[in-house]
Amino acid sequence: MVQQLTVVTATYNRVHTLPMVYESLKHSTYKNFIWMVVDDGSTDNTEEYINSLIANAPFEIQYVKKEHAGKYEACNLSYKLTKTPYMINCDSDDEMLPEGLEIIMKAWETVPAEQYDKIWCVTGRCIDSETREIVGGPFPKNINQLTGRKKWKAMCNVTGEKHSCRKVDVLKQFPFPTFKDTTKLVPNIVWTRINALYEQWCINDPISVYYQNSPDSLAKSTSKERLLAYYYYALMVINDYNDQFWYNSDIRRSYIDITRCGWRGGKKTGEILKSLNTMPKKIAVIICMPASALLNLYTEKVRKWIRNRKKH
């Protein structure tokens, strides 16, 4: 049987978490997939570990090693190499539920033929690794009967971590951008662009485990690069998707984040304002600057308090 799905894991020096990914895939009730591991130049024994699995794994494993350039360059490479119509990302600290892949692939079969070309991904829910409860709220029962802006408005009101299986031919049209001063990105810098042209097929079934408190989680990073990732995302949504301001909280939050994160990432006020594409947006960002400054001051005080606690 020809494989329809590729599970992609982009990894860098995470050999200590990869066994969790492998074990979850090994117990999957759906086996007709390829596990593609894109190694972003690891210096640990990731290569040896993956090669040790290949002979006995109950599914095909593809191992690709590249020079270190960041997770999202690894994702871009995976788009070029993937031959299946569907792809689901499973990070190096993720865990799929046993029925997760099977649920996703069956969901693709339920998409009406007349809507298929408009749908770019099937999106399911996650369970919390500690409580084992579903994270966030459910999609409305009629979510897949909605279309266009009505559907996106409804989705913006749904809280909690989600996990999507995406069409590879769409992903190839929207590679992750590159910036000179950061290799980290907010994934929504691409997903927002795709969502403006295509729609998601939503299911309320949980498909994966969300490790919110993982000590290795990249989302916990407060590095300059991570802050710049939020800055570039804020800049993009303010400039290009401001029409979603009243129903998409990401847009409203970005008016503070663009200077809050931009300043801490090394951007000057003049540079930030110059990057905005209309005068009303520049004025709105200026109005939000006191809130950005106060949040940065509060964050720095909290970080100083934590450092002092660790010393004592």
Would you write up a description of this structure?
Helices cover 44% and strands 17% of the residues. It contains twelve helices and eight strands. It has helices at 18-26, 46-54, 71-81, 100-110, 113-116, 148-156, 168-171, 188-195, 224-240, 249-264, 269-275, 279-311, and strands spanning 5-11, 33-39, 60-65, 86-89, 95-96, 119-128, 162-167, 199-210. Strands 3-2-1-4-7-6-8-5 form an eight-stranded mixed sheet, with helices on both faces. Strand 2, helix 2 (46-54) and strand 3 (60-65) form a beta-alpha-beta unit. Helix 10 packs across helix 12. The longest helix has 33 residues, at 279-311. The chain is globular and about 60 Å long. The chain starts with a strand and ends with a helix. Residues 215-220 have low confidence and may be disordered.
In short:
With 312 residues, the protein is α/β, with parallel strands linked by helices.
Name the helix and strand elements from N-terminus to C-terminus, one letter apiece.
Answer: EHEHEHEEHHEHEHHEHHHH
Mean pLDDT: 93
| Strand residues, percent | 15-25%
Cα gyration radius (Å): 20 Å
Q: How many E-type strands?
A: 8
Biggest sheet overview: 8 strands, mixed
What does the overall shape look like?
globular
Tell me the structural class: alpha/beta
The residue fraction in helices comes out at: 40-55%
